# Entry
Amino acid sequence: MSVRFKWVVMKTKDKIILASLDLFNEKGERNVTTNHIAAHLNMSPGNLYYHFRNKTDIIYEIFLQYEMLVDHYLRLPSNSDLTIEHMVFYLESVFDGLWSYRFFHRDLEYLLDCDQRLRRDYREFTMRCMQSIVTILKRLQKSGVIVPMEDDFVSAMALNVWLAITNWMAFLKTAHAGEENNVITKDMLKSGIYQVIILELPYIAEGHKDKVLTLKEKYRPQPFV
Amino acid sequence: MSVRFKWVVMKTKDKIILASLDLFNEKGERNVTTNHIAAHLNMSPGNLYYHFRNKTDIIYEIFLQYEMLVDHYLRLPSNSDLTIEHMVFYLESVFDGLWSYRFFHRDLEYLLDCDQRLRRDYREFTMRCMQSIVTILKRLQKSGVIVPMEDDFVSAMALNVWLAITNWMAFLKTAHAGEENNVITKDMLKSGIYQVIILELPYIAEGHKDKVLTLKEKYRPQPFV
DNA sequence: ATTATCTATAGATCTATAGATAATGC
DNA sequence: ATTATCTATAGATCTATAGATAATGC
# Structure
């Protein structure tokens, strides 16, 4: 009955976190109660409450994992020149994270309303991510991939990139909704990279434009309808 | 006890819709039950259920109003030249609509999961809005405000504009969350126009750039923190 | 001894309906 | 007669806890 993970018997607490994440992603946090989580683990609700005070606490722990993952993905390397390939690699990683914790942004506002810690932490997390995007853009300027531009501009650009990234999933879900095959896959999610490249395209230096255009085509989304 | 609106006594059905919209916007749809709506109107739950089969039906009617409003805002005029001022006016209008029905996008995915009609209608609504944005951009090209660009590009741009517009509220709520004064106002929402102008800026024709830069400053958001 | 788990349940909602009663429109 | 409203309530959850029991670690 014990779930194994990398040769180690998982602690019940971790099993609860993992099962919750799976259920949240699959059914939506709103549709998953502590009862469901316990039942899914063949465990009594009483036991679940022995390990967590409530659902909010489970969600907070999941957020901490998500935060660690994305912070890790966005750790920039030394001071070497940044290429457009690096940038796309960062995007791939971030979309991977977004996929693994996709329940989170769906009910974000409600979740933040429920938990002050999460509210504070998430706010700082957002600012940190945005700062990372700014840094990446500035490094691309430095290596000549992106043309020089004012700081104000870089910040506003970074924000638009952030908006596109974090809401791409919701767009896919709602714009595809009603289709026969309404399932979104990780690969479909990555077509969001196309949107980000479109955002950056006007600022790509002449010498790099062809390469970026080719990259863009790689992520072109399958046409809707 | 009868609510009056423009000299006409409102029908109970309309009172329910209006009260629901107010409560949803203020407290979030998830936190508002049919009981709350009835209580807020000093009405029995039984009476509410006489007028609506359930909450989903109330929400659908609210959506129809929202849809009508935005469709109306996006009705483009004859074939006269489109200026950048026109474009900003459309943005102002759309953000007005977004503000009045701001509960809607917050729980959009859940709401669409609950109601097939809404799913289908919303999908068509999205496509219609995106088409309107494309048309506006093309008209701006025609009148020389925006430089010529490929159709593919215009579509992808329109999508990024749509993402920025519809998710600006959520960004404000979550990025400002935790502040002492966490209340978002309609004027703050309109700082989203700044983001849209940033998106369009690289494509503005030389002769119009100064005017657009001035317009942009008008919508510069108050600095966070 | 301490930690983990289960059983059982109180208390709080919420949804949706049945059935009675009041108000309204010809 | 028809439409609108209220009262009362069944049935379905869900959260969170108390208290008993089992398993584990020195």
